[in-house]
Amino acid sequence: MNLKQTLNPSLNHCDIALERPSSGWLNGFIAVVIFSGSMPATKVAVMDFNPFFLTGARGAIAGILALIALLIFKEKRPSLTQLRSLLITAFGIVLGFPLLSAFALQHISSAHSLVFLAMLPLSTAIFGVIRGGERPSKIFWFFSLMGSLLVIGYAISQGIETSPIGDILMLLAIVLCGLGYAEGAQLSKTLGGWQVISWVLVLSLPLSLSLSFFFVPTSFESIPATAWFSLFYIGLFSMFIGFIFWYRGLAQGGIAKVGQLQLLQPFFGLALSATLLQEEVSIGMLFVTVGVIICVLGSKKFAK
Description:
By secondary structure, the chain is an all-alpha fold. 77% of the residues lie in helices and 0% in strands. Helix 3 runs antiparallel to helix 12 (225-253).
C-alpha cells in the first residue's frame, strides 16, 4: 500500500475490510517504528517546555496539518454518533496520554517510561473487546500476557529507579491511550484511518491552541534546538503521520491483534534512549527482544 492509497479520500471506507490482514500488520509496524521515538523525544522536550505547553503545542502542530488535509480533500463532516467516538478518542490520545506522560517524564527516565508501554497492547486489546466487540482466543491472551511480562520483567531486572508519582501517571496514561487506540480504530472502519486522526486533532485544536497560548515560555532564547526538534517530531510524526498508519492497521488487522506489535515499541525506544540520551540499557535486552518477537508471532498466529 502506498501513501496515495492511504490518504486518497475517494477510496470506499468499506474497502479497508476487504484488504488482506497482512496489510494491517505492515501498517501497524510502520506506526510502531514512528511511535518509538515519542517517549525519548518527549523526555528531551519536557526538560525545557512546560508539560501543558508541550501537550498543546504538539496537538496544535498536528491539528493545523490535519485541518489543511481535510480542507484539501473536502472531507464530509462526521455524524453525531461519530462525533461522540471522536471526542472519546481525543480525550485518550490528544489530551490524556500526552499530558500525563509528559508530567511522568519529569519524575522518571525515558527508559523507565517505556516499561509501561509493555502494558499498552493489553490495554488496547481489553478496550478492543469492550468497545470493538472483538473476541480473541485464550491462546492469544496467553501470548499477549507473556509478552508484557517479559518486558516488565526485563525492566525490573535492570534495577531502574522508581517514582510512585511517575509510575501512577504513566499507568493512567496507558489506560487512556488504550481507550483512544481502540475507539479510534473501531471508528476507522467506517470513517477511514487518516480521517479519524484528522477530525480528532481538529476537534481538539481549540484546546491545543489555548494550552499553547497560556503556557507559552516567557523566553525562547534559552531553549535549545534539540527541544524544538523533539517538539516538532512528536507533533508531526507521533501525533499525525504515525496515527495514519496505526488506525488503518488496527482497522485492517484487528484492534487486539495488530495492537500486539506495540510490544516491540519499548525496545525500539530503549535503543533510541541509549543512543540519543545515553541512558544505560543492558545487553540482555536482545534476548528479551527475541522472546517478545515470539510472543508477537504467537499472537498473530492464534489471533482468530
